[in-house]
Amino acid sequence: MKSTKVLITGAGGFLGRYIARELIKKNYQVFSFSRSEYSHLRTLGVTQRQGDLKNYDDVKNALAGMDAVIHTASLVGMWGHYKDFYTTNVTGTENILKAMKELGIKKLVYTSTPSVVFGRESLCGVDESTPYPGRYLTYYALTKAIAERMVLRANGDDGVNGLCVVALRPHLIFGPGDMNIVPRVIEAQKKGRLKIIGDGENLVDVLYVENAAAAHVMALEKLEFNHPIAGRAYFLGQGPVKLWDFTNTILKKAGLPIVTKKMSLKKAYAIGFIIESILKIFRIYNVHPPMTRFVALQLGKSHYFSHHNLEVDLGYLPIISIEEGIDRLFASHKS
């Protein structure tokens, strides 16, 4: 497989660039597909193809000549227009699947999210048999669930059009280059806005980015029609850890005071509901609200998962510990 051509959607993003780096280390020919060109991908030696996931012709042109696809690109957010989430996360994935079938590309590693099974209750050590909830509190989770089910249905050796797919659900990825989780936590604490939601004892999975990338590459290399991972979704994470202990470790490393102020989950959820209601009334969608119902539950409830199936079926175990990952994150800040 040394000469395999792999296209990564969203390679300019946080996880995508690490997957690209991992593939290049293994002498794959790596291509990216995104709307922009990225200097760091050019430096890595990635061949970049520009276009829009929502445009089928762009997708088909980008996939031409590929042997496999790793689809990490998605619209992530806790608020916004349903149409925006749907066209990127669902239509974009639909375009990937259609183009793969037309071009005869068999292998797809799809980056999903544990949010596809998160409703309103804590998830404590659950496995992949956990059903999709009846209702979602965010369009991101809803559209990712629609896309994940579409991907898994596409698996099957039905001759010419058969695809071989696997969906990975990485949880709370952190590491050097993260522009989302850790920077937002640090910024919120600097402004004095950070509060522990609930009793502070809730447990979560986190995941160091190099481990996430390694799992994607391992899945690509093992993916075959007769392999146990084909047609299945897997939780991907490390832990569990206490969310607020992890948060305070990050704050200490950043030279900031730890968070001690608390707010009840019930109050945070109510505030989220009020903010969402106001935003809906005035049709304001292009903002990052300070609280939503989904965010309140994510901060106050437990959400960690069994990794047994991934360990057994893929043989995957994290290489870099959470502690070492945090050290690497802040070492990169100093350099």
By CATH, the topology of the domain at 5-174 and 206-238 is Rossmann fold
CATH architecture of the domain at 5-174 and 206-238: 3-Layer(aba) Sandwich
Which class of the domain at 5-174 and 206-238 in CATH terms? Alpha Beta
Give the strand line-up of the largest sheet: 3-2-1-4-5-7-11
The fourth-level CATH homologous superfamily of the domain at 5-174 and 206-238 is NAD(P)-binding Rossmann-like Domain
Query: What's the assembly state of these chains?
Result: single chain
Count of helical regions: 12
Give the overall shape: globular
N/C terminus separation:
35 Å
Kindly state the mean pLDDT as a whole number?
A: 95
| Rg, nearest Å | 20 Å
* Structural class by secondary-structure content: alpha/beta
Helix content: 40-55%
Q: What is the strand tally?
A: 14
Largest sheet: 7 strands, parallel
Strand content: 15-25%
Which runs of at least 5 residues are low in confidence (pLDDT < 50)? none
String of helices and strands = EHEHEHEHEEHEEHEEHEEHEHHEHH
